């Protein structure tokens, strides 16, 4: 199983599409002004709803309907998967950073130049309108790269506890460690939505995640305190 480990880890989403890296700096403010960043490609003048709407790699404003806008990182020219990806999570180290409460996971936290979580509400807004693929990338302690790709990633809204509704078909070389959580709500230490009646998996593993009754058995714990690959 994967625990939140290795040297690097991130989630990427693209709306049924398949980067050059932007220069990201500064503390994260998901609902406020972004840090100043640089790119050879002109940043969009207004808000977007998909990274496919721009060739810009870096921090971009997203906005849907009458909801408040938020910032997210677009990835372009990915070495395997091409353009149009938005980064949901990036974990460079983040020891202890990911043991957060429900509100933090709903709204997002971290630093765009290091480890961060975009926010479940923002993921829901992005994925609820058009079909999206999911890529989970991992670089282990030996520098080995692996990935898991899912053809149709869907989560529920907050009333549904952002349940992992659908993943679609798996491909990749990293193993399918997410499918065991399909259908289950997201759990934090202060909002227990797993089906284990005796304990809160998020407290037990010091990690918020989509847990079933067996916590992370045969699955993944990518937000966990132990930064290793088992």
UniProtKB/TrEMBL annotation:
Pfam families: Fibrinogen_C. Keywords: Signal. Coiled coil: none annotated. The keyword Signal applies. Gene3D superfamilies: Gamma Fibrinogen, chain A, domain 1 (3.90.215.10), Gamma-fibrinogen Carboxyl Terminal Fragment, domain 2 (4.10.530.10). Residues 42-230 form the Fibrinogen C-terminal domain. This is Fibrinogen C-terminal domain-containing protein. Residues 1-22 form the signal peptide. It comes from Culex pipiens pipiens. PROSITE patterns: FIBRINOGEN_C_2.
């Amino acid at each position: 199983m994967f625990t939140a480990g290795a040297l690097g880890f991130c989630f990427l989403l693209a709306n049924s599409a398949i980067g050059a890296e932007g220069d990201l700096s500064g503390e994260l403010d998901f609902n406020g002004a972004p840090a100043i960043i640089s790119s050879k490609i002109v940043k969009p003048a207004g808000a977007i709803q998909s990274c496919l709407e721009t060739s810009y790699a870096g921090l971009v404003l997203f906005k849907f309907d009458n909801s408040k806008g938020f910032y997210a990182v677009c990835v372009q020219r990915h070495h395997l998967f091409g353009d149009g990806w938005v980064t949901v999570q990036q974990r460079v180290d983040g020891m202890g950073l990911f043991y957060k409460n429900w509100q933090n996971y709903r709204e997002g936290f971290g630093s765009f130049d290091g480890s961060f979580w975009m926010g479940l509400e923002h993921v829901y807004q992005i994925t609820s309108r058009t079909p999206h693929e999911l890529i989970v990338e991992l670089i282990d302690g030996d520098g080995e790269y692996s990935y898991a790709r899912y053809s149709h990633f869907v989560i529920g809204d907050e009333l549904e506890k952002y349940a992992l509704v659908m993943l679609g078909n798996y491909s990749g070389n990293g193993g399918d460690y997410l499918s065991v959580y399909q259908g289950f709500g997201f759990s934090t230490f202060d909002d227990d939505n797993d089906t284990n009646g005796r304990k809160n998996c998020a407290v037990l593993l010091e990690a918020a995640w989509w847990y079933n009754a067996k916590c992370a058995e045969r699955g993944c714990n990518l937000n966990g305190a132990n930064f290793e690959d088992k």
